[in-house]
Amino acid sequence: MKKNTLKSQKRQEKTANTLSFIAVIVLAAFVLLPIWWIFRSSLMNNAELFAWPPSFFPKRWLFSNYTKTLALFPFWKYFKNTMIIIVPSVIGGTVTATMAGYAFARLRFKGKKLLFSLCVGSMLLPTMVTLIPLYIMWSKGLHLVDTFWPLILPYFCGGGAFNIFLIRQFIRSIPRELDEAATIDGAGHIRILTSIIVPAIKPAMIVVALLLFIGIWNDLLQQIIYINSSENFTIAIGLSQFKGSLKSDWSAIMCATCLSFLPGIIFYLIGQRYFVEGIVLTGMKN
Amino acid sequence: MDNRKPAKNKLLRRESRTAYLLLIPAIIGLVFITYIPLCAVLGLSLFKWEGVGPMTWNGLNNYVRLFTRDPYFIDSIKVTVLYALLSVAGCMVWSLSIALLLNRKIPARGFFRAVFYLPYVLPAMAVYIGWNWLYEANYGLFNYLLSRIGVTKIMFLGSTQAVIPSLAVIAVWLSGNLIVIFLAGLQNVPRVYHEAAEIDGANSWQRFWHVTMPSMSPIIFYNLLMSLITNMQVVTPALALTNGGPGNASCFMSYLMYIYAFRNSKFSYACAIAFVFFLLIAIFTVILFLTSKSWIFYEGGDER
Fold first, then answer.
1. What pLDDT does B274 receive?
2. Which are the contacts of B293, defined by CB distance < 8 A and separation ≥ 6?
3. Which DSSP category does B166 fall into?
4. Angle at the Cα of B81 (from B77 to B84), degrees rounded to 5?
5. Mean pLDDT of A86-105
6. Please, what's the b/e burial string for A21-38 (b: 16 or more CB within 10 A of its CB; e: otherwise)?
7. Residue B15 is part of which domain span?
8. pLDDT above 70 covers what percent of chain A?
9. What's the CATH number where A188 sits?
């Protein structure tokens, strides 16, 4: 009797798993369909795009659309500008967040509690609130508008409270015996940080770098505010201008969109393992 | 701290010197790009200043004008809160359900996790432009799919009723990071709890409500808070897609602030919006924290 119910329970679970699998496939299709639709639109000519009913696959795959689009849409220039902002910001943010995270995790000093709560408090402060005073500082005070500095330098100031917090939590999960052994060997705190902590928290640092990357990647508002001349356009601003100038040449617009997707997808594929692990960390360590 | 041990004291001093040294960038950040600007927002909002010329004291007039005479402000609060509630609710339900599905024994879990996460790594600007085409009224993907099931065309971005829900759908589509966090949380729910509940005869629905949900509640709270703050700040769809329209149907608070400050140079007036926005977020955060005590379950009871 008992065995029977167990068997039926097993069977029930199997059905549930199969149903879940089907549901996951349907939902995944919903997630992928928009991306496919955008990609397939980039390979069609406009006559095909405005046909009814629309088809899911292009009749001919017009990769020539991309050559045409690249002639009008200086993707590589925008890409270069975006990288000029992203690369130093990501490095600066990761390094300074690690420094601060280490101090909060391991060192004793006066005012630690206060500083740490100020830090955590700023996590809840929306960036939008401080936008105008910062703009006034960069424009009226430092005269650096239409350069990349206002977009880069803030990241050298700790890289955001969230990332400091993340690094601190990660360092705290490393056994103290490791640094104590090094102290006995005569290593100073900086030595411990660079030769023991940093190698141990590499995954967390990569996550911070990737989170910074995505954050800057998506920060359209600040790029619009600080960048004026087309020489300095990032991918995001360039794309919005490109769309504004074309209005309804959707196949070219979709080409430009797909091109802009590309770096994100490539970075994701490279860093995927860390990405997922890291997001897991951010969720767990609070 | 012990005076009789000067050597130890010296060590401590060196330790704190190192700490301050390492914290210099973060302290500069906290002072100059967080807390001084926060005070400056409040200060500026009490003046009248349009970017050039002298500032003149204006008291609370900016705030009075915002709430009594501004034709856009009250609506922008409503639109922002509506959008935030819709997208937060949508994101939570969507990502928790997918995480629950992915937590079962199904094939190719890693692959599906990567698929659901993918939209999150795409640049927002490109995402919104892409969706602009998907939402196109006559030839877009969604109206085509709707026509296949016999639903009449929806002006997704062109009608005042549809635009906010349409934008919230994009927010849900983008919420892959929440799925991954939820999934990690689910995998951390101790198996013994489930087994114990099973022995007590709980069915899977009861196990979900009495085992899974309580263990997940801290993570749910964290995701709720963070996505509320993110979604309240919504501005990119207005910048990239709708320009606040149609009419003012998607004129979010951030977008209104942007327009006042950077198109019309009404800096101090825009600061008043920013400060009201800050208070609004603070109120929401406090409410969430207060209610959280009743529904967050911490393992080990009162230890934390």
1. 94
2. none
3. H
4. 140
5. 94
6. bebbeebbeebeebbebb
7. 6-57
8. 94
9. 1.10.3720.10
Neighbours of A269 (CB within 10 A): 12
Q: How confident is the model at residue A284 (pLDDT cuts 50, 70, 90)?
A: low
CB contact under 8 Å between A236 and B281, yes or no, is: no
**Is A114 within 8 Å of chain B by CB?**
no
B278 touches chain A (CB under 8 A): yes
pLDDT of amino acid B22: 93
Q: Are residues B252 and B182 in the same domain?
A: yes
What are the distances in angstroms from CA B154 to CA A60, B134, B138, B150?
Answer: 30, 12, 9, 12
For residue B218, the model assigns a pLDDT of 85
Residue among B297, B40, B22, B226 nearest A108 (CA)? B22
Asked which of A54-58, A131-135, B117-121, B170-174 is least confident by mean pLDDT, the reply is: A54-58
Residue B195 pLDDT exceeds 60 = yes
Structure tokens at A145: 């508008």
Please tell me the pTM assigned to this model.
0.89
Chain A within 8 Å of B163 (Cβ-Cβ)? no
Nearest Cα to A116, choosing from A137, A101, A94, A99?
A101
Q: Give the single-character DSSP code of B48.
A: E
B104 contacts A17 by C-beta, under 8 angstroms = yes
> How far apart are the CA of B64 and the nearest CA of chain A, in angstroms?
19
- Cross-strand partners of B48: B56
What's the confidence (pLDDT) of residue B92? 94
B66 pLDDT higher than 50:
yes
- Please give the residue range of the domain that contains residue A41: 10-66
**ipTM field:** 0.87
Cβ-based contacts of B132 with chain A (< 8 Å) = 243
Residue B1 counted as domain residue: no
Comparing C-alpha atoms, which of B249, B51, B283, B89 is closest to residue B164? B249
Q: How many domains does the structure of chain A reveal?
A: 2
- Residues contacting residue A151 through CB under 8 Å, at least 6 positions apart: A85, A89, A216, A219, A222, A223, A226, A227
